[in-house]
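To assess whether ligand presence alters the predicted conformation, the chain was also submitted together with pyridoxal-5'-phosphate. Input:
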Amino acid sequence: MAKPTDFAIERTASAVSAQRRADILGDPGFGRYFTDHMCVMEWTPEKGWYAARIKPYGPFSVDPASSVLHYAQEIFEGLKAYRHADGSVWTFRPEVNAARFQQSAARMALPHLPEDLFLQAIEALVRTDSDWVPEGGGERSLYLRPFMFASEVFLGVRPSKHVTFAVIASPAGPYFPGGLEPVSIWLSEEFTRAAPGGTGAAKCGGNYAASLIAQAEAIDNGCDQVVFLDAANKHDIEELGGMNIFFVHGDGTIVTPRLNGSILEGVTRASVLALAEELGYRAEERSVSIEQWREGVVSGDIEEVFACGTAAVVTPVGLLKWRGGQLSCGDESGKVTTTIRERLLDVQYGRVDDAHGWLHRLV
Ligand SMILES: Cc1ncc(COP(=O)(O)O)c(C=O)c1O
């Protein structure tokens, strides 16, 4: 099994200059810039995983008949590397991402990637490109994107016998440029994201392709994000296009929709559930209908709504909008939302004790 030191390292001859990199890290945005290198490895049924290497960041050569282009056999992950005040670089619960990646792979008939190989790939890339991890101020980080896709050249509906795994990295600022401004959410009543028995609990590209039309509808209606209902009854709230959702009740209970097989089990969601209990709130996973959301806000029982995910951390929801109506959920980040957000960021940036052992040192 490859160790980080076993990864063949081919360094780029055209690294981005230190000045240009500093400019990018000063205002990275999200998903716009990529580091100098990437990690790649290959898989076949005969060889298992092989050819683990760090190489210059650049395009793949993709045959027009590569099966991923036709049958969308592809999965990905998203996690971040955080620079602490002492200069060290850490990531957050990467073993949970590794486990989710394995579950996504199993659902999409892709090969199993052992946890240690997943971690070693991330470590090898972040160590090679450690200069790209921004200083932690202003919620900056290096976003890591591991992914796996069917790279066999063939047409026909069956699992690919050649698979490529890669990790790329992208310096990131806040996901929503408005910072802690509450976001507005569009209720998708026509389109659903994932159905029972489908791929909703897997992090596969197809789920996102299916969500784009609803996200476009959200933008057309002046909203930042879309919220999906369950596909069978269009009754229960599932999640946003790229985040899980929480409701803060006046009695101190924090509720998130229970996992039903079509919701993505967020690493942030799980961490918020744990942190909420630690901070003295009662955390519950149960179904929440769209009526309960509306009625809860109107009656005052629901005091805050927030969304969470690796990219957006914890972000207040200020408005729910649908065809023919809207409901204000708060003009600013509520006290509970802010408290949970700050605690999570404090753990990730090493400002408080890592009581859960969630941090994993990379550099
Ligand atoms: C559909 C969806 N739900 C939830 C999440 C939040 O997951 P995590 O907290 O692991 O980033 C994401 C982000 O990856 C997502 O794409």
